[in-house]
Amino acid sequence: MIMYFLASYLLGNVLTAWWVGKFYKTDLRHHRSGNLGARNAGAVIGKSAFLLTFLGDALKGVLVIFAGRYFGFEEWAVAMGGLLVICGHMFPFWLKGKGGKGIATFVGIGLTFNLLFAFAFIVVFLVALLFIRSATLSMIFGYFAYIGSVIYLNEILDAWPIVVAILFIMYRHRFDFKQSFDEQKWKRS
């Protein structure tokens, strides 16, 4: 199991945006937000870079969950693999802890760990998006719906590592949330 945990973290260190940037001869760390994620790749390079980065990062999450289930690990251990792949993505050792923000990797984990939790996230995110018209702010509601469904279905003992991953992701997005909130206030005034 220790090897699974280590492999999960190391797989997280494979930052798709870094490789996409290399392909396009662009170091995304020196453009716009400097973030090695799909959003920055799309903003700097274009839609194809966004899509490649998003799919590559989401695939990391899918692979970790599938691997944990393949080896028959308990659910909490599979969830821990999910947390560690996100930690590897957000805090890669080879880039001094400056990686992506974890959304795409979370999407891969969310869709494969438990579909009910993912469904709660998606429904609440979409409903919030209708009213707020900000994907960034709607994510907050989606994350709380995911955590709420974990608690409501009494799965906290198995899913707590993913809840911790969500808290990490939300912390990394704190400035994005504030910026989007300020933009919303400006639009309404």
From TrEMBL:
Annotated InterPro entries: G3P_acylTferase_PlsY
Catalytic reaction list: an acyl phosphate + sn-glycerol 3-phosphate = a 1-acyl-sn-glycero-3-phosphate + phosphate
Origin superkingdom: Bacteria
GO BP annotations, alphabetical order: phospholipid biosynthetic process
GO function term, MF aspect, one: acyl-phosphate glycerol-3-phosphate acyltransferase activity
Main location: membrane
Location(s), subcellular: Cell membrane
Membrane topology field: Multi-pass membrane protein
One cellular component term from this protein's GO annotations in UniProt: plasma membrane
Pathway given in the UniProt record: Lipid metabolism; phospholipid metabolism
EC class name: transferase
Bilayer-spanning residue ranges: 6-24, 49-70, 76-95, 107-132, 144-171
Pfam families, per database record: G3P_acyltransf (PF02660)
Enzyme Commission (EC) number: 2.3.1.275
Record's keyword terms, sorted: Acyltransferase, Cell membrane, Lipid biosynthesis, Lipid metabolism, Membrane, Phospholipid biosynthesis, Phospholipid metabolism, Transferase, Transmembrane, Transmembrane helix
Function, as annotated: Catalyzes the transfer of an acyl group from acyl-phosphate (acyl-PO(4)) to glycerol-3-phosphate (G3P) to form lysophosphatidic acid (LPA). This enzyme utilizes acyl-phosphate as fatty acyl donor, but not acyl-CoA or acyl-ACP.
Quaternary structure and interacting proteins, as annotated: Probably interacts with PlsX.
Stated family: Belongs to the PlsY family.
Name of this chain's protein: Glycerol-3-phosphate acyltransferase
Species for this entry: Paenisporosarcina quisquiliarum
Gene name, Swiss-Prot/TrEMBL: plsY
